[in-house]
Design a protein that fits this description.
alpha/beta; Rossmann fold; globular
Length: about 260
């Protein structure tokens, strides 16, 4: 995701001064890529300044993932939590909420814990969400948009590392107020396994990814959500200007669809 953001961000936006709207102040540390940001919502640690700004803007400025609930202690599962900007936002929105985060990437997981330190009602698992418990091969891509080998049929790739896997289905036997899945191609495998438990999920966000060498499975994907009773809203962050001629390709993926599922 971060390389996509940088590729589509004008250079002038990357060279802005120390302040952007809503009191976000960037404090550079030792290197260009590592830093700390002091914001109206506390201190954040990040690896990439541009990617952090993008996430902070989505969550805290636009509030794209805001939801309203009569339950003041909602249960939120964040699959693919990255550095924890979303987790912090939901704890800001509902301080008494229970947030369970999954992030298999070593660097992201370290930053996630730093960003959520001493925040009650939060638990982080250094695991990849999947249809089984056990172990999976995972491509970290330098802390960016890593993905499970099976999601792109790359089992034999020597660059993959082994990470623990967690079966999401095991958590869906009770009411889930919000389920977020940004698991870089693993969403269909996980949703299929959970389809008869999705009635316990009140709201769902899924970022659907299309790999170059794998079937899109869009009909199956939307079918699972519709059969679970969700109404659907679809958004695209980076639309192709001429899709028949050229599609932006990053990390072997050429399509990202943001899908919000909700109930009447």
């Amino acid at each position: 995701m971060r390389r996509i953001i940088k590729a589509f961000t004008p250079p002038i936006l990357w060279s802005l001064g120390r302040k952007i709207k809503n009191g976000l102040i960037i404090k550079k540390e030792a290197s260009q890529e590592d830093g700390i940001s002091t914001t109206n919502h506390g201190i954040f640690y990040y690896e990439n300044e541009g990617a952090f700004k993008f996430l902070y803007n989505d969550y805290f400025i636009k509030e794209k993932y805001k939801f309203e609930s009569t339950n003041q202690k909602p249960l939120i599962i964040d699959g693919g939590a990255n550095i924890g900007v979303g987790c912090r936002y939901w704890k800001f929105l509902y301080p008494e909420s229970e947030v369970i985060a999954f992030e298999p990437d070593e660097l992201n997981f370290s930053l996630l814990n730093k960003n959520m330190i001493n925040i009650p009602g939060f638990r982080a698992e250094k695991k990849a969400l999947w249809s089984t418990n056990g172990a999976l091969k995972f491509h970290a891509v330098g802390g960016e948009s890593g993905y499970v080998a099976k999601a792109n049929a790359e089992i034999g790739n020597p660059e993959f590392v082994v990470v623990p896997a967690f079966r999401l289905r095991d958590l869906l036997n009770r009411k889930i107020d919000l389920l977020k899945l940004d698991i870089e191609g693993g969403e269909m495998e996980v949703l299929r396994d959970c389809k008869d438990y999705l009635h316990n999920v009140e709201r769902i966000f899924v970022e659907h990814h299309s790999f170059l060498e794998s079937p899109q499975q869009l009909s199956d994907f939307f079918g699972v959500l519709e059969n679970a009773g969700f109404r659907i809203n679809v958004q695209v962050d980076i639309p192709a200007k001429q899709p028949f001629l050229k599609r932006y390709i990053y990390n072997k993926k050429y399509s990202w669809i943001n899908v919000f599922g909700f109930r009447n």
